[in-house]
Amino acid sequence: MNVLIIGCGRVGSSIALQLQREGWDVTVVDENEDALTRLGEHWPGTFLVGHGIDVDLLREAGIEEADAVVAVTDGDNTNILIGQVAQKRFDIGCVVVRVLDPARADFYNTLGLRTICPTKTAIDSLMDAVRSCEIAPPVRVSR
Amino acid sequence: MYAIVAGGGKVGANVARSLVRLGNEVTLIEQERGRFERLEEEFEHQVQRGDATELSVLERAGIARPPDIVLALTGDDEDNLVIAQLAREKYGVEQVIARVNDPRNQAHFDLLGISPTVCATSSIMALVEHEVPEHDLIHLLELRRENLEIVEVQIDRDSPSAGKRVEALDLPDGARLISVMRSGRAEIAVGATQLEAGDQVLAILEPGKEDELRRVLLRR
Fold it and tell me: What is the pTM of this model?
């Protein structure tokens, strides 16, 4: 199975390494050549330097044979565009994009794009953590 | 008319200024602090600071009214696409114009149905092609919504169409001649119009019919 990952930061590189260990053929694209170091010294997959909205680059990265596309660059709007191009132009069934802004993530969900919003996840986890703390109720002192 | 202009660079600021001068109600949105402060001196309450791809910023600018038109004119094509999609799909704005900075991104705007778009680079290149023709068939205008284009063809001495009447030409389906320019004067092309060497002919056609038209008029 082929997966194309656009954006090789902390998140993109971790997903790439993990999927590669699970037996996927992984291609990673990043604007910055240095991002390759995040994939370790012996990255067995493909790594291409370029912008993820460049259709020629996406073709070179094998998007036409991809089973899944993951857009995790540091730009919400870039991820949103890459996701829509993968879905609508290249008919990729499994497209997942990261959108940090909860409002935009919700809106594009309604348009049929699978958006993952780490901000929302963080808010939920932090709220749960606060609620689960065992704190003695404040003592009311009456005058 | 109420207009929201996203992006306060040279293009956005000049468009906003022109709209204000014409008596329109305008909100200009600019993200960058330094630029916003300079714009504020001129536009006062008509400029707001923020990222126009954020829903809260658009809402503060009154996108829910909705405005008569939204102009996505930032220097970033991804941002312009998202602004245009939000305006149209989420807030039901009927008129949206988007700027394309890199002509290679035009296909993305077309794919997502964002129209009309304006691309300075493409316009300049079309002018260059018109002024310094490298080809015998010059693209003058693309009618994107109609899926038609208007081209100009120069008839020369060796062209098979020189000396023929328009009705005698075996024009391909999806292509029609519009006019003939001869010695500085243009005439509407009708069946009886006879083409001559030196004529500049305007034709309207479906994209992809260029080669057939070229064959009929120029045999090339």
Answer: 0.79
